[in-house]
Design brief:
Number of domains: 2
Structural class: mainly alpha
Radius of gyration: 18 Å
Number of strands: 2
Distance between the termini: 29 Å
Largest sheet: 2 strands, parallel
Oligomer: single chain
CATH architecture of the largest domain: Up-down Bundle
CATH class of the largest domain: Mainly Alpha
Strand order of the largest sheet: 1-2
Length: about 240
């Protein structure tokens, strides 16, 4: 299976599960700690996407320490619904190993490599929740991210295929749906947050620009628009993802 197809199927699978409400909303101590660990994790991703090693190092250490609290409290003996998950302890340990590796890379000044390493944490946490029928807003952000990468990374390649414009239009339609779900599925407190609403609007506008370019059959504009998807999403993710 190609990497592109794998990403596309993963995004479609997650979106389908979320859209049909297959999961229960989070209300347990483990998920609460996982969500608490998500904020410093996002900052670690943000800082390793920059150029200041000291700031990246501090961010990764903080994220690592926050995850350590979850590992210490629940790693060996989780509570419901994770208590019936035979892979829970291994997943917790895997996240810890990712942080260890990322910190080594940051200390070596390899921020881009560390950033890519840290991306794995997002997938592991999402898989943990999915296995245990738990959903949080981050999962909707992750579904959007997966589909966005299909377009952003492979959009040019898709356009070069026979009927590539139609293929990319279909992929963008899926992304548009997921962008709307970010608004629909946002918790009430986020919907009242003006900064969240402005950042979400920018995400939706970035998708709208790509849709418009494709409908106008302007492939140059479509390539430009696909390259501008990441910026608005990254800002929303860093603060609210």
């Amino acid at each position: 299976m190609s990497t592109r197809l794998g990403h596309s199927l993963k995004a479609a699978s997650l979106a389908l599960c979320l859209s049909f409400g297959a999961f229960a909303h989070a209300a347990d101590p483990v998920t609460d700690l996982m969500q608490a660990a998500n904020a410093p994790y996002r900052m670690a991703l943000y800082k390793t996407n920059g150029k200041v090693v000291d700031e990246a190092q501090q961010a990764v250490v903080q994220a690592q320490q926050t995850w350590g609290k979850l590992s210490t409290q629940f790693g060996a003996k989780p509570v419901a619904p994770y208590d019936r998950d035979p892979a829970f302890a291994a997943s917790v340990a895997e996240v810890s190993k990712v942080y260890d590796q990322a910190l080594l890379e940051v200390n070596a000044g390899q921020l881009s490599t560390a950033h890519n390493t840290l991306e794995r944490v997002r997938d592991i946490m999402a898989d943990m929740r999915q296995r245990n029928n738990v959903v949080v807003f981050s999962d909707h952000m992750n579904a959007y991210h997966s589909q966005m990468e299909v377009i952003q990374v492979h959009g040019g390649e898709t356009l070069a295929q026979p009927k590539g414009a139609l293929l990319l239009t279909a992929q963008t339609g899926a992304l548009s749906y997921l962008a709307k779900q970010l608004e629909v599925q946002a918790p009430a407190e986020l919907k009242k947050n003006e900064e969240f609403n402005q950042l979400l609007k920018a995400v939706q506008q970035s998708v709208g620009s790509l849709e418009a370019a494709l409908l106008n059959q302007d492939m140059a504009a479509a390539k430009e628009a696909s390259g501008k998807l990441k910026g608005p999403y990254s800002k929303l993710f860093a603060k609210f993802g």
